[in-house]
Amino acid sequence: MALQIGSTAPDFEADTTEGKIKFHDWIGDSWALLFSHPKDFTPVCTTELGALARLKPEFDKRGVKLMGLSVDPVDKHAQWSEDIRETQGAAPNYPMIGDTDYNVSKLYDMLPAAVSGDPAKRTAADNLTVRNVFIIGPDKKIKLILVYPMTTGRNFQEILRVIDSLQLTAKHRVATPADWKQGEDVIIAGSVSDDEAKTIYPDGWKAPKPYLRVVPQPK
To answer: What are the Thioredoxin domain coordinates in residue numbering (predicted)?
Structure first.
């Protein structure tokens, strides 16, 4: 069965640029962002890895650990890192998995189970499905899945926005409307009755429709 939001993120052991890790232990009590790349030394991914390195303080502030993945070996990641530093102004400052046996790619439904052989002989086009983002909560459940085509770079500002929403809605019984950003009004969750809402929000709420109850973002 394909992974879905709410599924437990598959655990695994893997070699990374920062040593061997066991994924669930590595996550610990944090949130995690697992993002994958079809091949080292590919142009769009080079820009993405640099962008993420520059944004790492924003993820740190939110308690989100970063983990990259490519089917190429760890020593190739190290060589690619120098290109990323040279062209993007920052090198990866987070671990990158060397998924040379395709184990993680298969566990996360990014490559077919039948894939085998030498990863060095595979092209980016062979691995084009490996362009995913998984946001995983401290409970090890998948909170978000995004899949990008090879020709479209990821929008990490949008990913930060989603993390802000996920963390807020995990703590409070609210939902965030379209294009919501940190600090803006939110919607009282449908699971909260009006009677409950009166105790949670004694100052009341705006309700253009009975099912659309708008309140300031909880602190």
So the answer is: 3-168
Give 44-57 as a 3 state SS string. Answer: HHHHHHHHHHHHHH
In the numeric block, which tokens belong to residue 171? 């703590």
**pLDDT digit string, tens, across residues 77-132:** 999 999 999 999 999 999 999 999 999 999 999 988 889 888 888 888 888 778 99
pTM > 0.85: yes or no? yes
Which residue of the set 15, 45, 72, 99 is catalytic? 45
What is each CA distance from 87 to 18, 21, 51, 84, 157, in whole angstroms?
22, 29, 11, 5, 20
139 catalytic, yes or no? yes
Catalytic: which of 11, 40, 99, 139?
A: 139
Q: Are 97 and 16 in contact (CB under 8 A)?
A: yes
